[in-house]
Write a structure and sequence with these properties.
With 340 residues, the chain is an alpha/beta fold. The chain has 17 helices and 12 strands. The chain has a 7-stranded mixed β-sheet, with helices on both faces. Strands 1-3-2 form a 3-stranded antiparallel β-sheet. It is globular and about 70 Å long. 36% of the residues are buried.
């Protein structure tokens, strides 16, 4: 078979790889392995409560896709990639795998041809009868997967945002408000990087009420960070800079303009806004944002956008685009807007 044939076959069976990976996270296999001491399938199976023969076949397949290494005696150790799927790894991607390959998101993709045929996105409504955020309230398994995945992914996203902003003058910023900031991981990363900042994390009341999950408390930054329960479509705290990390891609253009207008009304003086997203590049670049955009088509009403499209959203909401910030080899960029 020529290279193009092999490449297409690899694409066709790509879901096999992601499901083989995800099975390891569901069964906590990676948490029972390390990078130095080989363990065999019967030992692992007894510890976890699995069938040894079928587990061996799963481990062998995980080795075939680069997550494990099998020795001549049938023992397995983690590779650097497999190590990222331990829940205890500081940059663990296990929760992201459990969400994206879990039953809820997996079910969405069968609706892709129909959505493109009839011009109506949002496979969550097609599959479950309501929006994703509403489904999280009704399905505790989905809520757990989603919350854990967002926390898991925040470490990598925050590192990329800080890389993009490196060299940007934030000396004039005193109060930074993270809009829909969840448990505040991004805010805490900024507070650590910029000692002059104080932070506000705005999210729904039920999110910020979970005190044990708040990062400012875990990282002993409570004196510089407060949490506010609210709705970004209704009211936003006063600050002189705002962040929107992976928020606007959840919503359609009109909804994005409404969010940005609310921030504009609340802004203290000549404020700034930082839109932190997967920014779609030109046609010559095969960027992750172009794939994530299809996920957003399935997941809800939003989309990934180009720099020009974010610039237009800012203009419609009364902001002006100041700059685009990108770190080398980063899939996340930052669009900076200003008012006043």
């Amino acid at each position: 078979m020529g290279a193009p044939v092999e490449q297409v076959i690899n694409l066709i069976f790509g879901r096999w790889r992601s499901q083989i990976l995800a099975a390891g996270t569901e069964l906590a296999v990676f948490d029972r392995l390390d990078t130095t001491t080989p363990r065999k399938a019967p030992e692992l199976a007894a510890a976890i409560g699995l069938d040894a023969a079928l587990l061996y076949r799963l481990l062998r397949a995980q080795a075939a896709i680069g997550l494990l290494v099998e020795d001549s005696s049938g023992g397995f150790v983690l590779t650097q990639m497999g190590d990222l799927l331990r829940t205890g790894h500081p940059q663990s991607l296990a929760a992201m795998a459990r969400l994206e390959e879990g039953p809820q998101h997996y079910a969405l993709w069968k609706h892709l041809p129909a959505m493109i045929t009839d011009g109506k996105q949002n496979a969550f409504v097609r599959e479950f009868g309501h929006m994703a955020f509403d489904h999280a309230k009704a399905d505790s398994d989905y809520s757990e997967r989603f919350d854990q995945a967002m926390s898991s992914y925040s470490a990598a996203q925050s590192e990329q945002v800080l890389g993009a902003l490196r060299g940007t003058d934030l000396s004039g910023v005193r109060v930074f408000c993270d809009v829909a900031g969840g448990h505040g991981y991004m805010t805490c990363a900024l507070l650590n990087a910029y000692p002059q900042l104080s932070g506000i994390v705005l999210d729904l009341p039920e999110v910020v009420a979970d005190r044990d999950s708040l990062w400012a408390r875990k990282l002993e930054l409570e004196s510089r960070c407060r949490y506010v329960g609210g709705d970004m479509f209704k009211d936003v705290p006063k600050a002189d800079a705002y962040g929107l990390k992976m928020i606007l891609h959840d919503w359609n253009d009109e909804e994005c303009v409404a969010i940005l207008e609310n921030i504009r009304r609340a802004a203290a003086g000549p404020a700034r806004v930082f839109i932190m997203e997967h920014i779609v590049p030109g046609p010559d670049t095969p960027h992750f944002a172009k794939l994530f955009d299809i996920h957003m088509m399935c997941w809800g009403t939003g989309q990934e956008r180009t720099d020009a499209e974010y610039t237009e959203l800012l203009r419609r909401a009364g902001w002006r685009k100041v700059a685009s910030h990108h770190a080398p080899n980063s899939i996340i960029g930052v669009i900076e807007g200003a008012c006043g």
